[in-house]
Specification:
Layout: E1 4-8, H1 12-24, E2 28-33, H2 36-46, E3 50-54, H3 62-71, E4 77-81, E5 98-102, H4 107-155, H5 159-173, H6 177-189
Parallel strand pairs: 1-2, 1-3, 3-4, 4-5
Helix pairs in contact: 2-3, 4-5, 4-6, 5-6
Domain Response regulatory: 4-118
Keywords: Phosphoprotein
GO molecular function, one term: RNA binding
Length: 190
């Protein structure tokens, strides 16, 4: 599946040239805008894989727009800027999903940056999902351990017997072990 890109610039000629270049290089241009507010609306609507924004946009400049897109974690951003505009982007320079490119930039530089930024964004997303999964698993394990502890204390069971009891109730009732454990905790802590 090709990378889905949205482009923003107050200069329609730049938008058309950039769109054509990206299409020729296998990317899908799914939105264009000359206004920062319009571009932000489109980003919220079509959820692109990447936004390429010019500093000069009507209504909201590329810096303000980049801060919102990165802050809300909507998609990675490449900002096309002049040397004099670089100072506006200092606070975004540490963001792994933001890259400022000074104009004019080579086509190879742009495509290399697009490729790297999209890969970085996907890696970060995958790592965040793994972290969420680990947090959920750790929380689940802690709840089951607490339920086992309560069974051991209140029914004089060994840890293995308490674990088997939770497992058996889960299988007999067709309910997850976490739900059984939560019910046990609720029963003994009320």
């Amino acid at each position: 599946m090709s990378t889905r890109v949205i482009i923003g610039s107050s200069n329609e000629k730049i938008i058309k040239q950039l769109s054509l270049f990206l299409l020729e290089n296998g990317l899908s241009v799914i939105g264009e805008a000359t206004s920062g507010h319009d571009l932000l609306r489109k980003v919220h609507t079509v959820y692109p894989d990447l936004a390429i924004v010019d500093y000069k946009l009507k209504g909201m400049n590329g810096h303000e727009l980049s801060e919102i897109i990165i802050g809300e974690r909507l998609c990675p951003v490449i900002a096309l800027i002049s040397h004099g505009e670089m100072e506006h982007f200092i606070n975004l320079s540490q963001e792994p999903t933001f890259v400022p490119l000074t104009k004019p930039c080579s086509k190879q530089m742009l495509m290399g940056t697009v490729d790297l930024l999209v890969k970085t964004s996907k890696s970060i997303e995958m790592l965040e999902k793994q972290l969420d999964h680990l947090k959920t698993k750790t929380n689940t394990d802690a709840i089951i351990e607490k339920a086992k502890q309560l069974l051991m204390e209140n029914m004089n069971l060994t840890e293995e017997e308490a674990h088997r009891r939770i497992q058996k109730q889960s299988m007999d009732k067709g309910i997850s072990k976490i739900k059984i454990a939560e019910a046990i905790i609720l029963m003994y802590e009320v």
